Fold this sequence. Notes:
Elements: E1 28-32, E2 34-36, E3 50-52, H1 55-62, E4 67-71, H2 85-91, E5 94-97, H3 121-136, E6 141-144, H4 146-154, E7 158-160, H5 163-166, E8 185-190, H6 195-199, E9 205-209, E10 215-218, E11 223-230, E12 235-240, E13 249-252, H7 270-285, H8 300-309
Amino acid sequence: MDFPFRITRPVATDDSPAMTQPVSARLKIGLSACFSHADPARSLFTNKTLQYVEQSIAHWLMSAGAMVVMVPCPTGETARGDTKLSHYAEWLDGVVMHGGADVWPGSYGEVPLKDAWIGDRIRDLYDLALVEAFEQAGKPIFGVCRGLQLINVAFGGTLYQDIEEQHGHPQTLKHRDPVTYDQNFHDIEIVEGTRLSKLYPHVRTARVNSIHHQGIKGLAPGFEIEAWSLPDRVPEAIRRRPEKGRSYISATQWHPEFHKYGSTETVDDTPILHDFLWACATAKVAPKTTPRSGPGKIRDRAARVLRQALLRRRG
């Protein structure tokens, strides 16, 4: 089967373009925004809300020829116009849910056990609305780190507020080290028979980076676990079960974009990237279907809040 678009990873130079694809043939991939909330003590952009993306994840998507667009939150004190997240979902071919701040425990029905674990409620509302918009449009969604946790929560799952304090495994790993950051690694086991195992047909265990202290406690209905951390068995990759009328949703707890291209020290990110972009290209040419309701839908209470707080035009 031919790809609807070309996926390559050439190296760009000043005098030769990185890709030979015309603009019209390239996939348009949304990237969720990170937030730096208004801070009167900040010397630059004083008391202004910043929305931004981390460079390497944009470059990761661009390495395969995709055009990357940050999807800004359409609400806030400076909001104007009638542009909605649903408009982005209609225009773009897929979305990647960015890593970043903790998920607010209230998003999955819990009270923060420590002030340090309060997370970012405002970003949760935006992210949940973004997932809802792309799921309703039938567009593929891929999550990274926080993105995996947010997707799990959006569809009814729960999280450990802190793995080291709550997981209870006798060999619980240190999944986040603020000193080594993206140089903190552990092994994973890929579950046989999953889509991920087919992407890595000769790999049973692999090494990945680890930059999180929250993790999946209760898996969302309609999803399956594709990889576990070793030896403490924290979910490291999930995917929505493929059923008629359901769009592609998958996520990894590690950051594939932090893999050094060509390195054999950690698992190669290329199959994961190509799988997501293939899903985007396929959905782009597939007949439109009406999204199914049921156990896998976005939480009702979250959807109500989101429609009121984020998806309306502010007066």
